[in-house]
Amino acid sequence: MQSTLPVSQHSLFDDAQALVTGTLLISLGVNLLGTANLITGGTVGIAILLKYFTGVSFGKLFFLVNLPFYILAYKKMGRVFTLKTFLSVGLLSAWSELLPLVFKIGDVNPFYSAVMGGLLAGVGLLILFRHRASLGGVNVLVLFLQERLGWRAGYMQLTIDGAIVLLSLAIVPVDRIAISLLGAAVLNLTLAINHVPGRYGAA
User: Fold this and answer.
1) What is the CA 65 to chain-centroid distance, rounded?
2) Ordered mean pLDDT values, 10 residues apiece, the chain (203 residues)
């Protein structure tokens, strides 16, 4: 049954705290994945792979990888969405650079890293999605397809992320790839179950 409660708009403060909270959660999730030498999908996964190849920090690479996608975001999703996405990408890049200075994870079970990293990233993305923001790249594509065609963002991203994770076989051990797929599944099922078109009305 659809809710009959009136729809309210998010305030500027609502959006600001959502972008900060969501990207903080995602940065912690990404840190857990990286500590266990796991991989994930989307532009986050691409940035992690490039980090393995180049040694450049994730934060810097993530910001650069997303630059081409802002054109699609602006054309398909509008100026406000693009601005929020740009800010979200910038915040995640900044938190990823700062996190090692204030928080270091030692030895951690890779299965725990996959599940908790996926959950943290999924909840963080859910917060961003509900405030009409994303982390660019694949997020922009799946949100566009969900709004235009009604395809679930979580299921679409699960398919794309699985393909990206498999491409990492060249540099990531097979056992870590398998565990990484678990993390990708947890992340995207979190989105698929909780991010349903029409269920959440505020913009």
Assistant:
1) 14
2) 49 89 94 87 82 86 86 79 90 91 85 94 91 79 76 76 75 86 86 70 47
